[in-house]
Specification:
heterodimer, A: 218 residues, 4-stranded antiparallel β-sheet, B: 12 helices
Chain lengths: 218, 270
């Protein structure tokens, strides 16, 4: 099966401290992959390295069979950052956030409100970012990532701030997105989330800078 | 002299034209600087420029031009090292601008005698603004208009969510260089109004007031400009009639209006 992402012998450091140690893994097209890891395990560094935000000290990354560049990343990847990484008091509405993505990507799958309506959230469109709950904001960021019709969706700690009901909605939504043929990579510290998903997802565990456990189920 | 007579005085007309242009420039650029939480960078650049001003006064050669060179180099230095050093960026700015400000004081000490022009750079002298000052401001005004027309969406995205902006294909580092260099140019041309010490207020106060009032981002720049213009005009006229330093008066008016906006926003939230 052809690969969506292939990470080969990647090493990364933070200052002089090694954070990623000889990481090798690949994600097939259409897979759902969970990358598990506790605080300081290097999972955020791994995701930022795949996204081109951190340059690896050595090794290489291929996306859809091509060497990773900003252009390739922009073409194939939709990114859902941690909600805590975005300033919540930024004076911007949901409509402006999604419209901005549409304008810069020069495409707008299902229109500005289309993906929000798939999780019954089109009523959020005129709301200010500061008036959204954590779960609502998460949905907005997912909708923003989907308007560009990415082949690969990478989500950083998407389950933070979600209650059980919102979490179940998210898992259902990811399953739905995956059935459209999209590859999904989810980075999380929360093993309980992984226990709730279908057994046929891939789970990588990152521990002490090593990607040392590869399981099919948890 | 009443208001009608005052408005016919060439020095007052120049002050009003210059003040309006500077208010529009600083209030619009200030939106991005404030939302990026970079007001300390503009403060650092303003203080560092004293080294250039002092060198200009000592050499009797274009203090504003030399200040601009120092400010632009400081902007490039900060932007370059921001992601390339383990030293916290606020510490880096604090060290570099303190050094350059101190260097400015040492250079001033080298040139003998009383230096009245130094006071105009430190505290501003809007009533002494010249047509060539206004011409330079108009050029920068058009650069900002063009930049906003072509880079508005990219600047907004890079300000709101820099990592996602990079993944969307935006050259966030180039944008940051552009924004910081433009900020340094705007700071230097605004020094004539309020001086080195207070210039950051023109960038930060209108934009912060706009942030409290705006219901969406598209309202931010218009509100910031209106706030900046009102404060500037009230400040200029008030300083003339009550005989106070114009730069400081403009900033005091901005502070009072900001307090009003803050109270309104609190009342509205409740």
């Amino acid at each position: 099966m052809s690969k969506a992402i292939e990470v080969k012998n990647v090493n990364a450091t933070y200052g002089k401290l090694p954070v990623l140690h000889d990481i090798n893994f690949s994600v097939n097209k259409g897979d759902i992959v969970y990358i598990l890891g506790g605080n300081g395990s290097g999972k955020s560094t791994l995701i930022k390295t795949i996204l081109g935000l951190i340059k690896p000290k050595s090794g290489s990354i291929e996306i859809m069979g091509q060497p990773s560049t900003q252009k390739i990343i922009s073409k194939y990847i939709g990114y859902v950052p941690q909600t805590t990484f975005v300033e919540r008091d930024f004076p911007i509405t949901v409509e402006e956030i999604i419209q901005l993505e549409c304008n810069l990507a020069r495409q707008c799958d299902l229109g500005v409100s289309g993906h929000l309506s798939t999780f019954d959230s089109e009523h959020l469109l005129k709301r200010k970012l500061s008036n959204l709950s954590g779960g609502e904001f998460q949905k907005v960021l997912i909708a923003r990532a989907l308007v560009t019709k990415p082949d690969i969706l990478i989500m950083d700690e998407p389950t933070n701030n979600l209650d059980q009901e919102a979490l179940e909605d998210l898992i259902t939504l990811l399953d739905k997105i995956n059935k459209q043929g999209k590859t999904i990579i989810i980075v999380t510290h929360d093993e309980t989330v992984v226990r709730q998903v279908d057994a046929d997802v891939k789970i990588f565990e990152l521990k002490n800078s090593y990607l040392n456990i590869l399981k099919k189920t948890i | 002299m009443d208001l009608i007579e005052l408005l016919q005085e060439p020095f007052m007309l120049r002050a009003i034209y210059g003040g309006i242009i500077i208010a529009i420039i600083t209030s619009s650029l200030g939106v991005f600087i404030t939302l990026k939480k970079q007001s300390y960078i503009s403060d650092g650049i303003a203080h560092a420029s004293l080294a250039g001003i002092a060198a200009g006064i000592l050499l009797s050669f274009q203090p504003i031009l030399l200040a601009m060179v120092v400010a632009v180099l400081m902007a490039i230095f900060i932007t370059y090292f921001r992601k390339r050093t383990s030293i916290a960026i606020d510490s880096l700015i604090g060290i570099s601008y303190s050094f350059l400000f101190a260097l400015g004081i040492l250079i001033i000490n080298l040139s003998p005698g009383f230096k009245p022009e130094l006071f105009s750079f430190l505290f501003g002298s809007i009533l002494g603004i010249t047509w060539s000052d206004i011409t330079i401001s108009v050029i920068v005004f058009f650069i900002i208009i063009v930049a906003l027309k072509f880079l508005y969406k990219k600047l907004l995205y890079a300000t709101f969510d820099p990592e996602a902006a990079y993944i969307r294909g935006i050259n966030t580092e180039a944008l940051e260089y552009f924004l910081n260099i433009l900020t340094s140019v705007v700071i230097i041309i605004s020094i004539k109004i309020v001086g080195v010490i207070l210039v950051t207020a023109l960038l930060v106060i209108p934009a912060t007031a706009a942030k409290l009032l705006a219901q969406k981002f598209s309202q931010m720049i218009p509100i910031s400009i209106i706030f900046g213009l009102i404060s500037m005009l009230i400040g200029i006229f008030a300083s003339y009639f009550i005989d106070t330093p114009p730069g400081a008066t403009v900033v005091i008016v901005e502070g009072i209006l900001f307090l009003l906006v803050f109270l309104i926003s609190k009342l509205r939230a409740n």
